[in-house]
Design a protein that fits this description.
The complex is a heterodimer of chains A (155) and B (495). Chain A has 155 residues and is mainly α. Chain A has helices spanning 12-31, 44-63, 65-68, 73-84, 87-106, 108-122, 128-149. Helices cover 73% and strands 0% of the residues of chain A. Chain B is 75% helix and 1% strand. In chain B, a hairpin with a 6-residue loop joins strand 1 (172-173) and strand 2 (180-181). Classes of the chains: A mainly alpha (155), B mainly alpha (495).
């Protein structure tokens, strides 16, 4: 199979195991669906899909077994975090989560303004004063564009 | 309303203009743009929405070539092959000629693709009326399999991604029985997870997070001079343009294969067939720019054939466009041409207009373009995230959709980091209901008999062709097939 070409990345085994458990969960849920009396019932197709997902993850685990065993689980976890969530990505993901959580309590305009300024400064897109102006200009443009052209109702 | 009315023409022009820049800016993709656009345009009249999306689609596929030539960073997967010779041309001081050739080749390819769409789609649509539910079931499987096998590093990962998409499409109320599936008792989940929220998460947020890894890469400025290629140069390469367009149309018409595959295949074809290229391939051959650019734009017409006639998307972008058509109450498939033939011709007209604007915008405004392409990612990504949030919220005016979008954005990012492609997930979400409904109908036809179902797969000639295509696609990825192929080729060479 083409798995031979995969570049081994630490953490892949953990992800595949997680996906396998998730697939098993889907299959169990599918079997628990009522009225599984025939092959066109509500649960039949989910069972088929769940089984395919399990087979795929097992195939990946089996095919890459040798490469996966190059790391111990603890060591792999330690290496995976900086690979998938290096400092910049981890902090920026946290900023995005915070922005979305604050959307409701702070209202769209305030939270978006703070998010844009924070992001511009963190990602070095613009300096402090310019960030304030760019964020304000962008939000004004977005207000007119989306309110009048796309008719989006902001909250 | 006719597509030639001023409003429609303006919308196509706006879409094409924006599409070129979206496609050209590394980190922004056509799929991302169309996904976000759906959420904003779903309250629009279907014609207006189609005009804007058609423009963004055509412009975006072409736009990727600009950054591939100028920065050696393909703006879209379909432009990867363009960079092989486009960037060396730019380094030789011929960036203008490379852009000019890419534009004219794209426009000619685009027109040939549209001609193929206009002539073949009605025929295929009539033919597809003969399709039984089992054939649609097989077609949907074939689409996901092809995307899974062609778009990533591993077939198993591709199939898993497709199956994940199908699973996501099943969350909510079962359309046959009205029973909730995977809802865990939540009333909110009974209507399912809105696929636009998933699409924006997978293509908007996750792509932005992936791109943050390369925040430090600075674009190299290029000097762009003469841009319009000579007639002599174009006529000389006309046979290659036609051949590449045919490759693009053919690849596009295969369910699941898109512009990136078409461009790479056309590039390979040019390398094999052009005996005396202007320069060696990889060192700035004009043919290395013309072939992939013609093919990826011709692919648009090809992609639309299975999308409009069978309801099976050609690639991730057409999967997203199918989603848009569903939102507007249309059902792509054989009945689209019967119930609403005017919409088909409207779409063909919008794509034709988009190609005309592609020529105009493609050969002008290079200096503004060069500035825009150099826009800092630190400015770009926060804007993408914010627009993704607004777009997702706009679907149902629901903050829950925004949470889903964020969740899928982060999940999609992790999957991407480990080589899972997002194209099959989207295809799975769009094709899931088609696949399941037709599977269940096929089973009911056979009175739930498994042997009866499998016998039907080989008895009917059309079904047999589809079954064999799926078997060959799976077998083609196995070591056994590779070994057999090696042995046969070895025997041929020896004999």
């Amino acid at each position: 199979m083409m798995e031979d070409k995969i570049t081994r990345k630490p953490g892949e085994r953990i992800l595949i195991w997680f996906l396998l458990l998730f697939s098993i969960f889907i299959l169990v849920q599918a079997f628990m669906m009522p009225h599984l009396e025939n092959l066109s019932s509500s649960g039949a197709f989910p069972i088929f899909i769940g089984s395919i997902m399990i087979l795929c993850t097992l195939r990946i685990l089996w095919k890459n077994h040798a490469r996966y065993s190059a790391f111990k689980i603890g060591e792999e976890f330690g290496k995976a975090i900086p690979l998938v969530f290096p400092k910049t990505v981890a902090i920026y993901t946290a900023i995005i989560i915070l922005y979305i959580l604050l959307l409701y309590p702070l209202h769209f305009w305030v939270s978006s303004y703070l998010f844009l300024i924070g992001s511009f400064l963190f990602l070095k897109g613009a300096k402090i004063i310019r960030s304030f102006f760019i964020a304000a200009a962008l939000l004004t443009a977005i207000y007119f564009l989306f309110q009048y052209l796309f008719r989006v109702i902001f909250w | 309303m006719s597509f030639t009315s001023l409003k429609m023409v303006s919308l196509v022009a706006l879409g094409t203009f924006c599409g070129i820049y979206i496609g050209a800016i590394p980190g922004l993709s056509v799929t991302m743009a169309v996904s976000i656009l759906i959420s904003f345009t779903f309250s629009w009249d279907v014609n207006n929405a189609l005009c804007l999306m058609g423009g963004v689609y055509c412009g975006g596929v072409y736009g990727g070539s600009r950054s591939a030539i100028l920065l050696n960073i393909p703006g879209a997967p379909a432009a990867v092959a363009t960079g092989f010779d486009g960037y060396p041309l730019a380094k030789l001081g011929e960036a203008g000629i490379a852009i000019g050739l890419a534009t004219t080749a794209s426009v000619i390819g685009g027109f040939l693709g549209i001609i193929a769409l206009a002539t073949c789609a009605p025929i295929i649509s009539n033919f597809s009326l003969m399709f039984a539910p089992r054939d649609y079931f097989l077609l949907a499987i074939m689409g996901i399999l092809l995307v899974g096998s062609l778009s990533g590093e591993s077939l198993a990962k591709g199939i898993f991604a497709g199956a994940l998409g199908v699973f996501l499409s099943m969350v909510g109320m079962d359309t046959f029985t009205g029973m909730g599936r995977f809802t865990f008792g939540s009333v909110g989940l009974m209507s399912g997870i809105h696929f636009v929220a998933i699409m924006i998460g997978l293509f908007g947020v996750s792509e932005a997070l992936v791109q943050i890894h390369d925040l430090h890469i600075k674009p190299i400025k290029q000097n762009v001079k003469k841009i319009i290629p000579s007639w002599r140069l174009l006529f000389k390469h006309l046979p290659l343009i036609i051949r590449s367009a045919l490759i693009g149309i053919w690849i596009g018409a295969l369910p699941g294969a898109g512009g990136d595959i078409a461009a790479l295949m056309a590039y390979g074809h040019a390398r094999r067939s052009v005996k005396n290229p202007s320069r060696p391939f990889g060192e700035g051959a004009y043919e290395g720019v013309i072939a992939p650019e013609t093919a990826n734009n011709a692919c648009i017409g090809g992609d639309n054939i299975p999308m409009l006639t069978l309801g099976v998307p050609g690639d991730a972008v057409t999967a997203v466009i199918i989603g848009a058509l569903y939102i507007h109450g249309l059902k792509p498939g054989p009945m689209l041409m019967i119930d609403t033939p005017h919409l088909f011709w409207f779409w063909v007209g919008a794509l034709t207009l988009a190609n005309i604007f592609l020529l105009i915008f493609g050969l002008s405004g290079i200096k503004i373009f060069a500035k825009l392409v150099e826009i800092r990612k630190g400015l770009l990504f926060p804007i993408i995230i914010m627009i993704s949030v607004v777009g997702t919220y706009a679907i149902n005016n629901s903050i829950t959709d925004v949470y889903w979008m964020l969740g899928f954005g982060i999940f999609g990012y992790i999957l991407k980091m480990y080589g899972f492609q997002m194209g099959p997930v989207i295809l799975g979400i769009i094709l899931g209901p088609l696949m399941e409904d037709n599977y269940r109908r096929a089973m009911m036809d056979q009175h739930h008999s498994i042997p009866g179902f499998f016998i039907q797969l080989v008895v009917n000639p059309l079904t047999l062709v589809l079954t064999l295509s799926i078997v060959v696609t799976i077998l083609g990825q196995t070591q056994f097939w590779g070994r057999m192929r090696g042995k046969v080729l070895g025997m041929i060479r020896r004999s």
